[in-house]
Each structure stands twice: as structure tokens, then as C-alpha cells.
Amino acid sequence: MVQPIQDEGTTAPELPSGQIEIQVPPDQPEAASMGTALMTVVPMMGSVGVMVFMALSQGQNTRMLLMACAMVFAMLVMVGFNIYRQVAGHSQKVDTLRREYLAYLGETRKTVRTVTRRQRNYVGWQLPSPDSLVLIAHEGTRLWERNTDNEMVTHVRLGSSSQELAMQLVEPELPPLAKPDVVCLSAMRRFIDAHSMVEELPLGVMLGDFSHIDVAGPAEATQAQVRAMTMHVTTLSSPQAMRVAVFCSEKNRDEWEWVKWLPHARSTQLSDALGPARMVTTDPEELVQLLGEEITGRGVFRARSETTDWPHLFLILDGVSLPMNTSLGGIGGLEGVTVVRTMTSWGPMTSRATLRMILHPGARPGDRGRMELLLLDQEPILATPDAMGIPQAEAIARRMAPWMAEDRPEAEAPMGKPDPKRSQNLMELLGTGDVRDFDPDRQWRRREGRDRLRVPFAVTPEGVPVVLDIKESAQQGMGPHGLLIGATGSGKSEVLRTLVLAMAMTHPPEQLNFVLVDFKGGATFAGMADLPHVSAMISNLESELSLVDRMQEALRGEMVRRQEILRQAGNYANVTDYEEARRAGKHNGEPLPALFVILDEFSELLSAKPDFIEVFVAIGRLGRSMQIHLLLSSQRLEEGRLHGLESHLSYRIGLRTFSAAESRIVLGVADAYDLPPYPGSGYLKSGTRDMTRFRSCYVAGPPPTRAALTAAPAAAAAARDSAERARAPRVVPFSALPVRGQAAPPPVEEEEEVVLEPAAESAQPSLPQDAEYAEMATMDIAVARMAGHGTPAHQIWLPPLEVSETFDSLLGDLGVDPKLGLVSPSWRARGDLVVPMGITDVPLEQRRELYSVDLSGSGGHVAVIGGPLSGKSTALRSLVMGLALTRTPTEVQIYVIDLGGGTFATMLDLPHLAGVATRDEPDIVARIMAEVSALLDDRERFFKANRIDSIQTYRRERAAGRIDDGYGDVFLIVDGWSTLKTDFEQVTDKLMAIAPRALALGVHIVVATGRWTDMRMTIKDMFATRIELRLGDPTDSEINRKIAREVPTGRPGRGLDPKARHMLLATPRTDGDHDPSTLASGVNNACRTIAEAWTGPQGPKLRLLPTRIDLTTLQEQVPPGGDPVIGINEARLEPVRLDMSHDPHLLVLGDAKTGKSAFLRALGNELCRGHSTDEVRMVAIDLRRSLLGELPSEHLLTYVTVREEAAREANDLANFLRARMPGPDVTPEQLRRRSWWHGPDVYVLVDDYDLLSSGQQTANPLLPLQPLLAQSQDLGLHLILTRRIGGASRAMFEPITQTLNDLSTPGIMLPGSPDEGPLLGRQKPIPGPPGRARLISRDHGVQALQLAWAPPTQ
User: How far apart are CA 955 and CA 960, in angstroms?
Assistant: First the structure.
């Protein structure tokens, strides 16, 4: 069937809109007042009076009387004329005002009639009369013009009625004191009343808004109305959008027999000998089978929206009703289904989704009568119903019968005759044959001269192919750069796909490559990544703006690469000369194909990244010589957005635009705004040439059915002949009823690969190999045919850094060495402490490189900075793993203070790990710090003793086996610097103190924290190696604040290297598994593998301060007779002794059960060891009797348990010691040797001093000793006090303790609550195990130690 074309007269008219404001009627002119008349009459009457008086005064002078009478008459005439003139002027003014206003209403009436005509044309176009439907179906241009993307697809005509004017007539508002002319005001209101409504205008409704439409009235009238509605909706709406089904009574079946001709009534579920079954039935179960689950399984009715499924069902019920127990018969209806019911009787309405049409037939022939439209809770609408007879309906349906929705062409106008719907298959334009038979190896040929980079992609309305030539104008092309603008739904993405596919099918990858960029989701070029021409497929940039800068670098890098290739090959001026010389054999350079960069939604890209315009300008300037072609595409274009790029855009493609202004920006004229709503329609403008109108080919749909077999034509013809001979001629009645028992005979078996499938009307041959392409679009088939052929394009876009590498892939040559364990020989050869860490992205050079850190020199200290969950702890573990896989446990020792959540618990099996402390182990934290501090001190002395000038010399000599202090390079790792500062102030101070000299002695400090401001400036400058991950506030970046903003969030391990390039750290595992959920097990397995591979001696491990050490053990290490030993220190785990000769007194503070009494017990025993009673005597004051029987009795002068007795003994002791006071005859030599008296040193041991000094009304029993404390060194007096920490901050001002403080008495602080504040030497108590103490003195600072334990006697 050949359909007529759509000419200018068939374009859809526009509906006028807006308002027509009626001018205010003029005010009624005021008439002349009586005062005005009198002002004229009175002077004249005065003059007349004077003249009469003068005439009468003359007596019998007749002449004077006549003259006076003449003058009086003249005066009277003048007065009368003046009064007449005033009255006539007012009347004329009124007439003029009325005439002008009525003339204005006359002009407005012309405007209103024009609006009415345009409105009638528009509504008549959308809702054509039933009599015109047969012409529409026969002519074919408007047949099925409404598809699912058309908002009018469910619009159906019901009849005609009076409707409001499209443009509102606005009645003016009269001012409060206005006195409008009555005639003008009346004319205005009559005008508005007469023209605000338009008579006999087609009336329609949206089927999608109603679940039921009841057509009530006489049977013949209702059936005629439903026929008119059915034919209207099926003539204009396609079968994909609208389906028709009829469920009628048996007696009414003949009334609907004509429906069998409608393509909309063909079932997709059932078929018979005629093909698809016709959806006309009297059986409700058969109706459900005909419709299928696709429709009957929908939800409860709701007004049609974007989520409603297609097609919409127009279900006609005539003389029957649907069972209530079915989905179709439910009261609520089905979504996407409108049930039209004919009825002769009806009840009240109950649903707002129901429309009821009550028909009142006319009494005379030809009178269609009237119709009432009823909606719940709304006023009835009066209208004139439509009607259509069966012959007319069948005539229209027969004209649609030959067509099926899937094979009906959009345009079949003769060539040369304009048709805006005309489109053509791309394969026909290219001349490549069927896309399923495309052979790249055979059909790809190098195109030269005029054919290079020149392809057809569309046809004009007359059917002439439209060619796009992206070569530069010097080579008779349109390029090299272009612009494409199209509104939503204009087919912009389809045009781009068509251009890419046409270029790819006509040019081999050695001649043309693509860079396909979609700023949004990536649907434009979806499926084209497998093309061998594609150098880069970049999408979804909108959600990750950091990739925009990466793409910018990649494009710049490609330009640099091409320039470098031209320079190395012989300084060629452009790629054209380079390629000609290469093919001539003048050089052996690599091919440089033309690069076609297509960027969709570039306008939004520039809004997000305005600086990207510089790349476009650079490509525009260098594209000609580099053969880089640019095509920018967007939905809209703002004026001035392109800046300096406009001069480089030599061709422009304008599809349908949002506004005429955008069309003018792109094309210079508004024509693109007036394009018809057919996807792919547009204008091509190149240079100053005339614009060419076109419609692009469509490649996103399935390919057309083969017209004939392309393989084995002779066999196919023979098979077809034999099949036709085997098939007996038969005539099958065409009926709405199912035609059964007359199925076609089975097809004839073929010897060749030919299958003939007979259908109801015709059979199309097909090839078996086409089955794999059955569900694929033309574009997908073409891509599949070209994939894997030709030379793959040079990749300028490497995948973004998404998945972290593992160390087995980073190191490459990782293996087990008998002496070194599991190591990488190549990385060991790179130098001391060069550690791999991850991958660095270098898009400018189109490559990636390994990211490593060199810790052997000034970069030995490392700072890892990153926001929450940025991968700081994993980065530290990666550093540890890198050290373990490049160095042995004897070369590297690692101490870890893990305050970041315990992630290093997975690395405890690593032999390089010397010790790990967590936040809940403050003693181990302090021990690690003490161990490292002691190591620094020992190594400093070791270097001096062995004349070692640097750590590099030490590494070299130690590797040669000439010197060794037991340690290699030591790494102190702190995960959580901010926590360390808050909870471990002393450790932080020690770390900051050792950091400046640590590197010179081979100690490396590695810290991780959330921001740079957590560190003081002095220590921050020491961290030369900085690993900066994603920061919480990118402005804190010390590398590059601008680029730091582009590091993506939610990607642990992503950061910047020192050159401000994006990098991704490796995960600390060696199993090649990239799953982050199994990282813990992967790290643990890697550590065990390293431990199993190491067969050498174990490196030094952290020696922990014991929680109990026996006094006898220490006494074995310290000879008797000297200063008493009290415990073992934390720094070196060496015995600690009290120099009681230098510091005679001691103050011990501690909470209950922390070891105060045990300390006195051990001290008493140690004082007596190696000393006779002539050297040492003790006085014990123990109110709680905790030392009863624990002190050597031979050295014990007295044991006091009562406060009063303590005062007496203190007084006696004071009197005794005063005798030792040096007299005036004592010489300096005696003072130095303390030889002017003889006797034992007296040690006063006071336990629980708080009980002795408080809580009583009497004075402190020890006050007699206070004056002697200052001279106790000369008198042999030693006072040792122990007391609770609770209340100690106040008790320190008690006389005895105050005196001890003034004498700089050392103190021992056992565990206690920090809430007491600073007590001794500004030190606060800290929790700890019993016996864990700090010895605080002004000479030696603070020493952590574990006090010796002397077991109590049994």
C-alpha cells in the first residue's frame, strides 16, 4: 500500500492561548449645566434691557423703536443659537464616544473570530469528525500518528459541544466612581457573553483518566456512538499504544463483525489458521485468554502516568457484563484499561473514574439529538453525540487492515516529493547490504581523497542522501569541528549513534578512531565500547567530576603524543603528510588514524567545569594538523557559552530546539524550532552554504526483514518453488470467530540452510544464522560483526583508579629466597628502604606508574593524612607490608601504637613486628616509647664508640657483618596522632623530642592523622614523605588544594602523590584478591606466609615491663651493702636503686591495694641487707599494723601502732638527733665525712600517713621532726611516708609534706585517679596494675618502673 505524503497543508495547527483584555467602556460625558447657559444669557438679556430702555426713552421715535426691536430680536436669536449649540455638542460627543468604542469591539470581534477559527482548526485536527476518518485512513499520512510518546494518544472524540474560547476574554474592572456609558457597557457585556463560548466544537476526553465509560440510551444510538469512538481512537493511535477488544452477547455479535479488520483487535496471545486471533468474543474466559496476563495481571485502576504500561485497552461491552470475580470485572477497574459499556437502563454513579454518556436521540431524521455527560459531583455537560454506521466503520477498518504496526513504513512517498517523515535504512545508504552479513575484513577498505571521513547518515524529505564530511575545508570537507544541538526527544542521541556507526562501518580502525564521551549516564553510546575504533569510552562524568579533569589530561596527552610522533618521524607539519610518508615507506612510524571526539551534553560539562573550554579551543586550533575532529552535542546552548570556540566550528547540526532563540544561536535562523516532532529531523549547515533539511537513519531498532535470501540463491529459489508446489491452494473465510481445523501443512524440509515459514498472508525467507541476532538492534549487530577485527585503537583513556592492586602484582618477582625469605629481588636492588605503595595515574602520558616511597634518607619520617574512612590504617599496613616484602626481620623492626581501631591485630604473625600497643594498653604504649628512646640513646653511644658517621654507613657495615647493635632500621608507627596527643601527652612529648635526631640514628616515625593542623609546625616539617588521602576539608591539603577537591569520596586509598597526581594505594595482601570484605583474612594469610618463609633469626621483640618482679631476683643482680634496690625501670628493664645518701627522704603516694605497704616491706628488708644494726635502725609507724612482723626485728627500734605513742617516740627521736647537731668546733672535713658523731642512720617508715596527719584534734605527731628534716643528711635521719592519693592535692600543704616538697624530696607515685590533678613534679596519677610506679625526682626526671615484691611472712 502506497501512502500519500504529508505536505504543508497537513501540519498540525497551533492552539492559540493567552488572554484578550477588553478595554474599559468610556465614561458618559457630562451635559452642559444651567449655570453655563445663564453665563451666556444673562449678559445678553442685560443688553436687551438697556436697549429697550433707550427705545422707550425716545418717546415716539419710530426709527429708534424699530432699531431697538431689531437688536432685541438679534440678541434673542443669538441666545437661542448658543443654547442649541451646547445641547447639540453634548449629543455629538456621546455619539462619537459610542461609535469609537463600538468600532473597537468590531475590531476585537475580528480577532476573536480568528481565534475561534484557529481553535476550531486545532480541535478539528485533534478530534476529526467521524465522516473524515475514512479519508484519513485512505490518505495515510495521519494514520496512527499517535504513539506511546504522544500525550494525545488516548484522546477520543465523543461529539460536539459549546466550549470556552481558547483565549480568555477578560472583562475590565470598573473604577469605584466610574460612570460608564450605558450603551457601551451593554455592548461590551453582550460581546463577552456572545463570544466567550464557541458553538459546536468537537468534544473529547482522555481514556486514561477513566476506568469505565457508560453509554446509555437506545441500543442503536449507543452502538453508533461506540463505533464512532472506536474508529476515532484506532485511526489516530497505533496498535502499540491502543488495543481494542469486544465482549458482546451472542445476538449482538453481528453488530461487531467488522472489528475483525482492525489491526488493533489482533491478539498477541492466541492465533488460529488466519494468524492472530481477533479479539471479539462472547465468552469471558476466552476474553481473558485473548488479552493475556500482560493486561489482566495489571493493578487496580489509577489515572495514566509515566509508569503505566502500554498498550491501553479499549474494551467494549455490548449487552453483557463481566463477572465480578475477574480482574476485568472488578469495581475499581484495571490500570491501563477503559471499559466502554452500552446500557439501556442505569442506576446512580458511584465512582469518580466513571464517565456516563446519556443519549437522547432526535425526533426527526438526521437529528442526532442531545447527549448529557455526567461525572460524579459535577454539573452535567450538554453536547451533540457522534454516530457512525457499520458500513462506514468497516470501510475505515478495511483501509487499515493491510498494515501491521511493526512493518508499516513511516513514509512511502515517491522519491523527489517532499515528505518530512521520510527515513531510510543506514545499510542502504552505505551500500553495505544486510547488516547481518557485514564482513569487516572484506568490506573495510582504506578510503582516500573525497571519500575519506565522508559518510551519508540521513536523507532529505525528497529522499536525497545527506552526507557529513568532517574533513577540513581545504580538503573539500565540512570540518574539522562541528556542533549538534537538539531538545529532549529530538533524536540527538540517535543521530550521534548513526554517525558513529556509519563512520565505523566505512573506515577501518587504522584510519579512524573514536573518543566517545557522555557527560551523563552513558546511554548515548551504550554498546559501542566493543568497536575496535574506540580509543576511549567515557561516561557518567556528572556523578564523578574528578574524571572530567582526567579526561582533559587524556585529550591533552593525545595531542602531545601526536606532536611527539610527528617530531620523531621527521618534523612533519601534519598527520596527513606523516601518513603519506609512512605509506610511501619513508619511515616506520606507527599509524596515526584520525581521531573523532564526540562529546554529548557538553553544555552541562562546561557549567560544571568552565575551564574545560580551553581543551576545546586547543583542539579547535590544532585539530586540523593533528587530525583530531571535534563534535559537540547538547540539548541547549546558551549564548556566549562557547567563548573562543565558535570560530572553529565549521559545521552545525540543528535538530528540533526548545526555543527559536536557540535555533538562531546554532543556525542563524529559527527554522529548527519549527521542525516537526519526528525524531532525527534537523538541519545541516556547513560554512556559508544553505541549510539542508534531513531526517537521520535509525540504528537502535531491529534490522529490516530480509527481502530475499543472500546465501545460496539458486537453492533458495528451488526450495521456494517446491514449497509452493507442496502447498495446496486453499480459501479460508475471514471471520471474527476462531478459524480452526484448517492449519497449514508443515513446511518442506530443505537440504540447504534455508527455512521457509508460511504465514497467513505471505512468507518471508530467513537464514538460520540470523537467530543469534533475533533480539538485537542494528547497531548491536554491526558492533558484534566488527568486534575483534582490525588493529585495535590506541587507548587514550585508561580505566579510572577503582580497584586497589595487591602486593603480588606490584612487586611482580615476589618469591622465596633461602636466606632472605619472601622478598622481591628487584625492589631490594632499587636501594635501601624503597617501598612500593600503589599505583599513580598519569593521564597526560596515557599510562600508570608505580607509586613508591624512599625512606632511606631525608624522607624517612612518614605522615599519612586523610579524612574519616579514607584508608589511613590500611595505608600504614600497606607500608608495613611493603617493608616486610623488601627487607628481612633483622633489617627492619616495627613498633606500632595502634590507636585507630585495632587494625594491626591482623599482622601479629609478621616477624618484622617487634611490638603492638592499643589504646587500652597504656603501659605497653609507654613501654614502646621507652624502648625506642633507649634505643636512640644506646645507638648514639654505639655510633660514637664505633666511629660511625651516619645511618647509611651503619647499614653498609652491618650488611657486611662488621658491626651490629642488634637492631636495623626501626619504625615507630602511630595510628591516630590526635588520640595520642589527647590520651598520652607524655608519650607525645617524648616522641616530639626524639623526632629531630631519630632519622640520623635509623629510627623512622610514621604517623596517621585526620588533618595537618593536628600537628605542630615544628614536627610537621620533619615529615618529608607525605601520603595525602582524601581530606575531610580539601583546603587543608599541603600538596594541591584544587586537585585535593577532586579526590573522590568513599574510595579508601585514593589520594595525591607529591606531584599532585591521583594515586591509589595497594591493599596489604599477596593473594591477588581485590575484595575488601576479605582484607582481614588476606592480610593475616600474607603475614603467615612471610613468617613461614623466614628461616633466619628472629628480630628483637618488645620487652614488656613485668607486672610483678620478686625482690630476690633483683637482689641477685645487685650486690648487698649499697643503695637499696626498689624495682626495675621501664626504659632499659634494669634495676633501680635509691640514693638515700643524696636524697634522704621519700614520699610515696598511691591508691588502696596498689602496693604502698608492700613497698615499705621490701624497702625495709633491702635497707637491712648488708647493713648491721650499727649502720641502720628503723622506726615503724603503722597504725593499720600492715607491717607487723614484716621488718627485721634486730634493726627495728620500735614499732608504733598508736597515735599518742607515735608522738612520744617522735619527740624522743628528735631529742636524740639534736645531740648530733654539729657544734662550733666541728671542722669542714668532719662535715664532709660526717665524722663528728657515730651511730646508725635512723629510717622512719610511716605507713598510711594520712591517718596520722588528719582526723584528730591534736597536732601531727611527727611535728617534732620537722625542724630536723632540712639537716637530716647530716644527722642520719630518713623519713619515708606513704599515703593515699585521695585528698593528696590538699594534704601536700600539710607542714611535714610541705617541708619535704621544699626539700625537693623524690616521690614515688603508684596508680591512682587522674582526677586528683598534678601531685608530684606536675605529674598526674594514672591507672595501672599494683606496683607500677613512677619515680619522680628533680635530678633524674620521671622514671617508670615496677616496684619489687617482697612476699609477706606466713
Answer: 9
CA atoms within 13 A on the CB side of 554: 25
* Cβ contacts of 289 within 8 Å, gap of 6 or more: 269, 270
From start to end of 520-583, where are the E strands? Answer: 534-539
Residue whose cell numbers read 529559527: 670
Closest CA to 217 of 371, 12, 22: 371
Spot the catalytic one: 601, 891, 1028, 1316: 601
Query: What are the cell numbers at 659?
Result: 526555543
Q: pLDDT for 528-568, tens place per residue? A: 999 999 999 988 888 777 788 888 889 999 999 999 999 99
How many alpha carbons lie under 13 Å from residue 886 in its C-beta half-sphere? 27
End-to-end CA distance of the chain: give it in Å, rounded. 120
Euclidean distance between CA atoms 1278 and 1274, whole angstroms: 11
775 carries an active-site annotation: no
Contact 1101, 931 (CB under 8 A): no
Among all chains, which residue has been given the C-alpha cell 471499559? 339
Residue 679: asked if its preceding bond is cis (omega within 30°), the reply is: no
How far is it, in rounded angstroms, from Cα 1045 to Cα 1042? 6
- DSSP H stretches of helix in 1098-1138: 1111-1117
**CB neighbours (10 Å) of residue 629?**
26
pLDDT tens-digit profile of 299-315? 889 888 888 888 999 99
Report d(CA 164, CA 174) in Å as an integer.
Answer: 24
pLDDT of amino acid 716? 44
* Residue 982 CB contacts under 8 Å (≥ 6 apart), including other chains: none
The parts of the chain modelled with pLDDT lower than 50 are 1-9, 405-412, 708-728, 742-765
Bridge partners, residue 1257, by sequence: none
Spatial contact of 1133 and 1103, defined as CB atoms under 8 Å apart: yes
DSSP state of 1225: T
| Calpha distance 1127→1113 (Å, rounded) | 10
Of 1125, 1026, 1019, 1022, the residue nearest 1349 (C-alpha): 1125
Residue 731, φ and ψ in degrees, nearest 5: -115, 125
Q: Which residues contact 1224 (CB under 8 A, 6 or more apart)?
A: none
The side-by-side arrangement of strands in the sheet containing 465-469 is 465-469, 454-459, 692-696, 681-686, 649-655, 481-485, 628-634, 594-600, 512-518, 534-539
Answer whether 1175's CB lies under 8 Å from 1241's CB.
yes
CA distances from 1014 to 99, 622, 925, 979 (A): 89, 48, 20, 10
Name the grid cell of 918: 592499643
Instruction: Choose among 236, 198, 222, 205: nearest CA to 385.
Output: 222
d(CA 158, CA 383): 9
Residue the block writes with cell 579514607:
870
Using omega within 30 degrees of 0 as the cis cutoff, is the peptide bond preceding 311 cis? yes
At 721 the pLDDT is: 47
> Among 538, 657, 655, which residue's Cα sits nearest to residue 599?
538
What distance in Å separates the CA atoms of residue 963 and residue 820, rounded to the nearest whole number?
19
- Supply the DSSP symbol for 820: T
- Nearest partner of 1006 among 878, 887, 868, 1131, judged by Cα: 878
Task: Give CA separation, 633 vs 494, 497, 524, 654, 692, in Å.
Answer: 12, 12, 11, 10, 18
Give residue 571's region: left, alpha or beta (phi > 0; psi -120 to 50): left
Q: Which residues contact 1085 (CB under 8 A, 6 or more apart)?
A: 1069, 1070, 1071
Query: Using H for helix, E for strand and C for coil, what is the string for 1155-1209?
Result: CHHHHHHHHHHHHHCCCCCCCEEEEEEECCCCCCCCCCHHHEEEEECCHHHHHHH
799 is written with which cell numbers? 580505566
